[in-house]
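Much of our argument rests on the idea that a fold can be written as discrete symbols. Part of our work consisted of pairing the sequence of a single chain with a tokenised description of its backbone. The amino acid sequence and the backbone structure tokens for this protein are reproduced below.
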Amino acid sequence: MKAVVIILTFNFCFLTILAGKLPKVLTEDDINNKQVFFDREAPSARACGGSYNTATGSFSSPNYPNPYGFNENCQYTIQVGFNDRVVLQFAYFNTESNFDYVTVYDGPTTASPVLLRLSGGPYSAYPDVVSSGSSCLVVHISDYSTSYNGWQANYYSTPITTTTTAAPVQNCPPYFQGDTTIPCWNLNGKCYCFSNRYQDFTWAQADGICRGGNMTLISLETKEEDEIIYNHFRATPDLNINYPYWTSGSYNNGWKWAATGQSFTYTNWQTGQPDGNPPAGYCAYVNFGVSNFNSGYWLDYTCTSMFRLICESF
């Protein structure tokens, strides 16, 4: 009987420190069959992780599409050509929210910058994650209980573009001059400023910031302008394509550019977009992670969501 008391005390202390979860209440049968507890404590015996050095590939969580194991720490390293970068997309993702997660690092180790940390779901066709160099690391972590059917990812390599269409910013309004969090470029005779640091804004906040600088949120009224912005963003290393950016597009008895009040006459919606239902209270944003301009990269979401911004001069 004394041995039983010791095991109970150890089990309770161990479980209560794990990820803030409530401990399982063990019965006397559990205690007599200690393997029930130790199976949950032990790492998964299934092989996981791996190294990938081809131009394209696919990989998934252990046992996918069946549930992954407990206490897994799986590392997947992707290395493509020296002059290429990695484009990664989760075709499907479903883990225990806030406890089991996947982290994508912009480089070969966990000391590299974090590109994405994802948990929960289910998600399908998550936006592309793009590395700045030729490698990235994907780390899958699960805790001691509750597992879902996990995730499946595809990747391919794309050349690193070293040229840029950026021009001097002397024609930009003075408001953003010297602000490294919102760098500006003069593109085709017009000034555009892109927020580029770790702060997001609601659509109304973004609109106010642009107007405060005597600018407006961007209105992509022609295909020519749309391609200029898309190509500049994807060709400029100083900008991170892994974040959504607000435009001035919003739904008000039809999709309109709030900056000008004009209805949309040109669009480049991603397949299935816009999908706001009802559309009132939805705004248009752009996802530069989409690797093919002609497949569409505009989407809509609730205007109270937190995204980055692009301001343009009048």
Q: What stands out?
A: Residues 1-43, 162-168 have pLDDT under 50 and may be disordered. Residues 219 and 260 are 8 Å apart (CA to CA).
